[in-house]
Batch of 2 targets.
Target 1
Amino acid sequence: MTKERLYLYDTTLRDGQQTQGVQFSTPEKAQIAAVLDGLGIDYVEGGWPGANPTDSEFFETKPKMAATFTAFGMTKRAGMSAENDDVLAAVMNADTPAVCLVGKTHDFHVDTALGITLEENTANISKTMEYLVLKGRETLFDAEHFFDGYKSNPDYALETVLAAYAAGARWIVLCDTNGGALPRDVYETTKAVIAAGIPGTHLGIHTHNDTEHAVANSLAAVDAGARQIQGTLNGLGERCGNANLTTLIPTLLLKEPYASKYEIGVSLEALQGLTRASRLLDDILNRVPMKQAAYVGASAFAHKAGLHASAILKDPSTYEHVDPSVIGNERIIPMSNQAGQSNLRKRLSDAGLRVEKGDPALGRILNRIKDREAEGYSYDTAQASFEVLARQELGMAESFFDVERYRVISERRRNARGHLVVESEAVVTVQLPSGRKMTSYFKNEDATEMNDEGPVNALWQALRQDLGPYQDIINDVRLVDFKVRITNGGTEAVTRVIIDFEDETGRRWATVGVSANIVDASFEALLEALNWKLLRDGAVRAA
Ligand SMILES: CC(=O)SCCNC(=O)CCNC(=O)[C@H](O)C(C)(C)COP(=O)(O)OP(=O)(O)OC[C@H]1O[C@@H](n2cnc3c(N)ncnc32)[C@H](O)[C@@H]1OP(=O)(O)O
Ligand SMILES: CC(=O)C(=O)O
């Protein structure tokens, strides 16, 4: 069966930038455009030239891409010709091969927002589209509020899109601007537009996620015959966002009937870069990636419940709708109070610890994890703490050194020059096989420099300063991330600290500490990280 072509149009750099709190720089726009192009997106909308300096500058850089680079703007304003409209001129001067212009199709908006007659609005749309075609641009008309407009006045809504199509627009894109439409409305209205004379091969869909149906609405439009989908990476966009291309792309490639019926520009090979593309955008936005995101989230293939993990180990398809590697994601079998022995054995074998089914140590480890989680610990992500605990129960954890005591002091004051200073000082006494050792660390930081070192850093520096015979092994350990949560351990509120570490081989590991005192919780996690490193790197307890 020959597949029909479906076109993907990305508006991350325009509607995505309409997300509250999102403002891309020009280099960031270039980076995102390159990622989209690498995936195989057909159209990359770069922004609205002339609307703000960043968008104008981005278009001036004339980014090279295989995708059709597209400028966004609005139809000409009433009372002037397309040639004389300076807002439209800025869009045209960007000199892109394609131009997408938004125009009104809802009678209420023509009256309320524009304050012109319906006839004037239709004429403005026609004249603007004709102008774009005359200038040799691939012309797209974003039919704003189309689904609401069709409900309010179907004849007028159809008149506007038919006028744009008759004037030569290549694509008429039906927009659910306020995001309130449901799949059935979208399906039936799209069918009505096709019946009125615009072929599906010239119809696109642009949806918003205000009822969490943006993806479903896009698919409904495709089911009805539309052949272009507009959306954004990670579903960024005005208010609740746009249709999420990060979800739509794998659905179109992997799910029926779409996979058999349609061809898209994204190949199965490029699909393997989707998780990376999604995380890169979050990285640029300095956002924590959404764990529950479909297909690309860190938890999208995390099998926490014991029954699930048991079956997953026999055949992953028992609890996975697709193979995570197809979209560049990973399967995780976390340890937690929902776990059974199957999760445990998988997690142990990932740590290189082979334990036979039925070994009584498995029950002991599981019970300890469940007890500790009840106290506030969490082993979902703190895989190194899990491993240390398991090794202890298996009799495979040597004790290298003991910490007899530590003391940490922080002081905030003004120095002689009147500058605010924060000083942290730590002393740690450890019992090494060779005897007792006391190390200290003192840091005077100028708070005006916004330095982030404090008591935890002082403790860390004191602890790792001189561990005698083990020093060579722990020298390259770096602290890379620090997360704090207040949680309920038993009946008391306690602090849970999770710390990520890295060594010079690039290996990363995380540990957890819990205490009523944040510094003490941190200390526990620091200590565990060093123990894990010593265990993993084959330290031998010195005589
Ligand atoms: C549905 C969407 O998301 S479309 C994308 C929306 N994106 C943006 O608005 C971001 C970029 N926009 C901007 O930077 C500015 O709005 C500009 C530069 C385009 C215009 O700025 P200003 O001239 O100051 O106008 P302002 O933003 O206050 O209002 C928009 C004007 O455009 C008019 N307008 C709105 N839509 C259209 C249209 N499709 N065709 C013609 N005129 C329109 C409005 O009636 C209003 O005119 P008025 O001031 O005479 O009432
Ligand atoms: C054009 C557009 O972004 C909208 O109607 O939602």
Target 2
Amino acid sequence: MASAELTSLDEVISNSLKGKELEEFNRIHYGRIDQCALFISSVAAQKAASNGFEIKAYDFPARKEECRKPRIVRLGLIQHSIAISTDNPITQQRLAIFEKVQKIISAAAAEQVNILCLQEAWNMPFAFCTREKQPWCDFAEPVLTGPSTVFLAELAVKYDMVIISPILERDDIHGDTIWNTAVVINEFGKVIGKHRKNHIPRVGDFNESTYYFEGNTGHPVFETKYGKVAINICYGRHHPLNWLMFGINGAEIVFNPSATVSGLSEHLWAVEARNAAIANSYYTCAINRVGTESFPNEFTSGDGKPAHKDFGHFYGSSYVTAPDGSRTPGLSRIKDGLLIAQVDLNLCRQIKDKWGFTMTQRLDLYAQSLNEAIKHDYVPQVVHK
Ligand SMILES: NC(=O)NCCC(=O)O
């Protein structure tokens, strides 16, 4: 079976197991017997059916507390393929993606989503495999005035949503430099801040370091009307300290907008964002692109194999993990989709109280050790026999 044919691992299981065996699988694998699937309104279901995208919703309830009200928030994750082929003019490609995504966002609105996040570089093909500067750099946009921000700001106001928009940024104040950036737009359509990708891959066809540097915005947490959110962009999910810092700064939900392909990372996908949710007692939302993107000119991968035009298969499979480690099934590996998670943010503190990971994490010990380890003449702490 080709990589782009299997719909989802979750479906393989739910189609194969039944009764008690399926319950036991769910308990051990997902962390709960009942997936807590939520009803999808006919309006949203109709939008999904007529526009060819999947829509799924799950609940993450928390224990009722005496001293705090529940803090129920609806999160929306969108995964999608590009809309027209990459040899079309830039403006047409972008517009076609806007049209596709607008329909998915309107379904999210019909489902009362409060905070919505798109995939990495959602408004363009992931052309960084090519190492060509033109025309791909022309997709870069200023954060405040770029077409993607203008487009999403209007929808944010219309739907009373916070929208996270991961784009290729053009910083026209600092020498027209390019960055991989997530823009946070509040429910009034105002850009409340941005975060630039901290860790840039140099693996496989991910030649992103040809285009932009490691980010210089630290680990910001954005206090929104609905909760404290942060964004760990794609390759940052392999770096536990990147996740840790968002937790230290108080994040309750960390989105991980990604672009990654099956040949490289699919066996890691279900592990990393889930582990981060457990280790940091927050919700994580892992979002991946979908589809196979083909480029006009051939490129090589530096592995002795023939030059080719395809990046490989972006395998979707977006999912949400709660601070207790329970998770949703993934969206499809091959289809556009909207994943909705209704979460109670009170679960973050409840899990901190239960497991005590923030109390026991020994930041002081690691700060001292790391301070030593980064010195050029550091002697590793090894006891010789
Ligand atoms: N976009 C990106 O950082 N991809 C790198 C590959 C991966 O992290 O799986």
